[in-house]
Amino acid sequence: MLKLDVTGMTQYGSNFAVNTAVQDGYSAGQLSSIEVNEYGLVSARYSNGISASMGSLR
Q1: Which of 7, 16, 54, 57 could pair with 42 as two cysteines, CB 3.0-4.6 Å apart?
Q2: Average pLDDT, the chain
Q3: Where are the beta strands (DSSP E) in 9-58?
Q4: C-alpha distances in Å from residue 3, one per residue of 6, 8, 9, 27, 40
Q5: What is the pLDDT of residues 12-37, one digit of tens each?
Q6: Nearest to 27 by CA among 7, 8, 47
Q7: What is the DSSP-derived secondary structure letter of residue 38?
Q8: Would you list the domain boundaries of the chain?
Q9: Higher-scoring residue by pLDDT: 50, 1
Q10: Among 12, 57, 19, which Cα is nearest to 36's?
């Protein structure tokens, strides 16, 4: 079971601009899915085929 306490969290709207862009050889991708495996490792998969480890749950 996963409990998430968001008490006291806020979100403030503000202007956004990209200050620096770095090309890593991959095209831009959007988040497609988030997966948690049997060991609690969290990974994100993007529309350009890239998968990245995001952390772990204990």
Answers
A1: 54
A2: 85
A3: 31-36, 41-46, 51-56
A4: 10, 15, 15, 35, 14
A5: 777 777 778 777 788 888 999 999 99
A6: 47
A7: T
A8: 30-58
A9: 50
A10: 57
